[in-house]
What does this fold into?
Amino acid sequence: MEKMTREEKYRYIEQALPEELERLKEKVSKSPWRQKYHIQPQTGLLNDPNGFSYYNEAYHLFYQWFPFGPEHGMKYWFHTTSKDLAHWEEVGIAIKPGGPYDSHGAYSGSGIVKNNKLYLMYTGNTRDHSWVRHPFQCLAEMDKNGLITKFDKPVIFETPPGYTDHFRDPKVWKSDEEYFCVIGAQRDNKTGCIVLYQSKDLLQWNFRGEILTDLNEFGYMWECPDYFEMDDHGVLLFSPQGIEQENERYNNIYQSGYLIGKPLNMESRAFEHQPFQELDKGFDFYAQQTTETPDGRRILVGWMGLPDLEYPTDKEGWAHCLTLPRQINIKDDKLIQRPVSELALLRKKEKNINISVDNETKQLEDFYGTAYELICDIEDIKADRVGIEFRASNTEKTVLAYDSVSNKIILDRSLSGQPLGKKNGSIRRCSFDAQTFKIHMFVDVSSVEIFINDGEEVFTSRIFPSQNSKAIRFFAQKGTAKFKAVKWDY
Ligand code: FRU
It folds into this structure.
C-alpha cells in the first residue's frame, strides 16, 4: 500500500482536504471487518489506550488516534466513556496536538482525579526543523462538563541527562499524599528503562531517578510503563522493544509484560522482582494500561495491535481496536487476567451443548457465529490433542488446541483468512500443565480474545476471516474428550 508522505501524516484535522474525512468514513464503513463490540476508530489508526480512569460516575478511556489513515502520524487523544465497562460511547477528540509543546502529536499518558477534576498527563511530541524529536511531559484538566483545558507549559520540560529523546508515556498514581509517575525511557547507551518522578501537586515534578531492576540490558526502549501494588506485591508493566525471540517467548515484533516483586522502594527506587513475564501469548497485544475501579478492582486494557506491521484493514482506511477490559489478580507470582464480569451485560441469545468427541471433529447445527462469547469446559481428556476450530468454513479456520503430549496450548491462525504478520509466524504456543482445560473466548468480527483456565493464560489476536466463516467445531485427536459449552451471541 502506498504510504503517506511526512506532510500528509503531520497534518491537523483542520487541514483535512474538502470532504476528505467524510469520504474516508464512507470507505471505512464498507469494511467487512468492522468490530461489533470493541472500541475502534471511525477512521484512521488507533493505538495505545490512554488516560483510563473513573471520574464523575463514569469510566473514561482515551486512545491514541491518527484520523487520516492507517499510519502513525499526528496523534490525537480520542475520548470514549462508559458507565459499565461493557457499553462504550464515543465522546470525540479530547486532546488536540498543535501547541508549541505538542506540535507533532499528543502522545500517550494517563489520568488521575484530583479536586473533582480529571488530570491528563501526556507526552507532547515535537520535532524541530531538522526533524529531531523533543518530548515534553504535558498536563490537561477535564472538568465535570467534559471541558478539557491544556496547561500552557509542560510540567516536565527537560529530559534528564543520560537519556535520549525517547522519553514518554507518563503514568501517574497517588500514594499517601504524594503523586508519582513513571516514564518510559531510553538511556544514552540505547538500552530501555523506566524513570520515576514525584510531585505534591501534579504541577511540580521532581526527578527521582531510574527504577532499579535486574534488567539492565533488555531491549532498546521501554514504552508505556505502569506501576501498581496489590496483595503486598509491586507490579511494573511495560512494553519493551528490541527483545530477541527465544523459542516460544517473544514471538511478536515488540513485547508487553511485567515484573512482579516486592513493593517498589520509593526512596532507593530498588525493585526486587521475579523474571519478566509476557502478559499475552497471542499475536496482537501491546501498550496496556490499568486503572482501579471504585470497588477496588485493577482493570487492564491493551491495544489489540502492534506498531510497524501491516494489517488487512489498512487498505480500507482504518486499523486496530482496543482489547476488552480485563480484571487483574495475582496468583503464585503471576498475573491472572479475566474478562470483567460486566461484559455479561452484552450477552444475547444463549445456546448450550454437551457432547462427546471420539477421534473426530464435530460441528453442530445451530451452533456458530461471528460475534459471541463462548465458555467451554473440556473434560475427561483421553486424547493427544483436543480443541476448538472457530470462524471456520471449508477453507478457513482458526484453531485453539491443547496438546497433551507436549503439554502446550496452541493458537494457529495460518488458515484464519486474510494473512497478516507472516514474518512473525502464524502459530503461538505456550507451556501448560493442568488437569483441566477451560476456554473462555470472545470472538468479534475480526478478533479473538481467549482466556484459558480462568485467566492463567491469555491469547489476544486479530483474525480476518470471510463473513461466512462461522462454524464452530470441537475436536479430539487420537482419543476422546467431553465438551460442555455455552455460547452467547453479542
Ligand atoms: C506506543 C507508543 C508510545 C507513544 C505512542 C505514540 O505504541 O509508541 O510510546 O506515546 O505510541 O502514538
About this structure: The chain has a mean pLDDT of 97. The chain has two domains: 6-342, 347-489. The first helix runs from residue 6 to 9. The two ends are 33 Å apart (CA to CA).
